[in-house]
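To close the chapter, one final illustration. This time we ask the reader to focus less on the individual chains and more on the assembly as a whole: which components sit near each other, and how the overall shape emerges from the parts.
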Amino acid sequence: MNDVSQPPSLLLDGLPVPFRDGQTIMDAAMAAEIFIPHLCHHPEFKPQGSCKLCTVKANGRYVSACTMPARDGMEVENNSPDLNDKRRTMLQMLFVEGNHFCPSCEKSGDCMLQALAYELEMLSPHFEQFYPDRPVDASHPDVLLDFNRCILCELCVRASRDVDGKNVFALSGRGITKHLIVNAESGRLADTNFSLADQAAHVCPVGVILEKRRGFAVPIGSRRYDVDPIGMQVERLATRSATEEEA
Amino acid sequence: MASETFELETAADAGTLRRVAIDPVSRVEGHGKVTLLLDENDQVRQVRLHIVEFRGFEKFIQGRPYWEVPVMVQRLCGICPVSHHLAAAKALDHVVGADRLTTSAEQLRRLMHYGQILQSHALHFFHLSSPDLLFGFDSEVGRRNIVGVAAAHPEVARKGVLLRKFGQEVIRLTAGKRVHGTGAIPGGVNRALSREERDDLLADIYTIIGWSRQAVQLVKRLHAADPTLYDTFGTFRSNILSLVGANGALDFYEGRLRARDADGRIIVDGVHVKDYVNLIREEVKPWSYMKFPFLAALGPRDGWYKVGPLARVQNCDSIPTPLAEAERREFIDYGQGKPIHAPLAYHWARMIEMLHAAETIKDLLHDDDLSGSDLMTSGSRNREGVGAIEAPRGTLIHHYRVGDDDLVTMCNLIVSTTHNNQPMNEAIRRVARRYLSGRKLSEGLLNHIEVAIRCFDPCLSCATHALGRMPLQVELLDANDRLIERLYTGS
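The assembled structure is written out below.
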């Protein structure tokens, strides 16, 4: 029997983390300001568990933290060498599948893929590059699409469909040929009712959906992950874990 | 031009000659090689500087959004990326209608660029060339490097390293990183300097100026110790070309094109950089990836020219900082009314320019515009822009066309080292004829060839950026040099 006076909690890397009924492991971790690496997850959208970066071990089984409901007493392993090795490998595969040339990408410093690669100490792509050749879509007056950087997270698909109510984006194809498309007969963004004000214009974790003519307006040192590295939460977790152990 | 020009470019009986290759040429940026063809009497019959890298920036910049270009194209080079960064930004300023930047933006870009001139010149002189000049061209190869300089002349090496470090710090504060930053964007810059950052640089700038003056004195002492060598080594006569600023003053950031002939007479002056295409043509030769530019009006035989410090210091009418101007006057006086064409005088001119860069940085750091907040401007869109800058190695021209969808449709880059292609070839041919012909070749003798190349501080990686529009001819020859098959791709 649960103690009704105490909220349910799971043990995340040994640290008790409370949660409410219906929350996932990711929800609970985010509420507790504990970082679990992820790319396709966004708290405002229904989780889909496709990127697998948030893979954790829950009671000894590999699961996606963003889709796995939290359970009272569940023991979850997150920030471990084993899991981070696997996450690093997944990042390497994402990097070689697209053209992620950080040195000349305007999303650099503001890109979750890059930030996670730094955080998880990815030192090389390891795998052979695919070098896809996907034409950019510059047809829209305010937004550029560079499909070469797509990681198929579907955040834009979900945002356009579920929030903007426009259904501008979709994934097409299967397996290795799966790719992002624009829902227009011409396939061009200019032939949709997409707007820079749409939520979908601002959810891309990498450098696919870009506001035109903005480029490198934010100087190095002031970009999102210059100011607050994505892994700071992980470091805070490590500090808290150590403090708990000492206590 | 002297009668021996082009004489050693192509030997008639190349198939019968002995081939010696210097591969790679060391202590230069990028990869190149020199081939020598010698006859049975060890007489030099053919000398060529080949550029063996192949880049392709002009091609793969096409189809990219224009605002990405200043950051992407600077990856041509790790030594003077700021030059490409700024030349691209200047070209694209015109595309976004920013024909006149805010004062703060222009001063910040100038500071970035003069920091770059300082660090690049220090790198070249102290790290790459001083070992030859201090130890001798055929000195022991094992110590002919910066480590050897540090052992024998620790103060010279230390100042060289710290001069470069200071220039890199100027770049870091203006561009965000020491190498490959993002400071310049079409229409302006993305950051200003705080008062504290300016004060930090000002704390060291007077030392930097002092060391730069000492560097000029060091080069002058080297000249004075062996004037015959320094005046004649690889010397050839040619036209010169550079940007010249307002009132004929030396200006690395902004100006118009001026060319003089080998006697110092002005051929053209006040040419707007957007008209470069009428001024300059490029010739392609089948044995090098690097093109051969020439003044269109004079043709490829007579129109080739030098760029870089030796051209700039003699092409301008004055240098707008007092210490460097005094040194320029002494340099000009050394020529006794005639232009100095000696390749080794590049080092002297280069150190005068480094002193000028240090003085200019000092003046800029006192300018409160560096801490201004008005950093961006724009106007009516244009579909085309040309930007030019005096990079450490010479005149650098970037030319872009941009479609209504913001994507680049055309890119043409004429980089400093490319201008100096024919001059470098001429210098090594004269050195080969003077020092190598009829002698048993040794490492020390072959290093004479490399010394001549290093005078120009070539950046071979920058100079081989073209793809797609360059006609390329491939010939398959048998052992007796008979043509078996020829393939040709035109523009």
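The interface with chain B takes residues 103-106, 135-136, 138-139, 144, 210, 212-222 of chain A (CB under 8 Å). The CA atoms of residues 165 and 234 of chain A lie 35 Å apart. With these observations in hand, you are ready for the problems at the end of the chapter.
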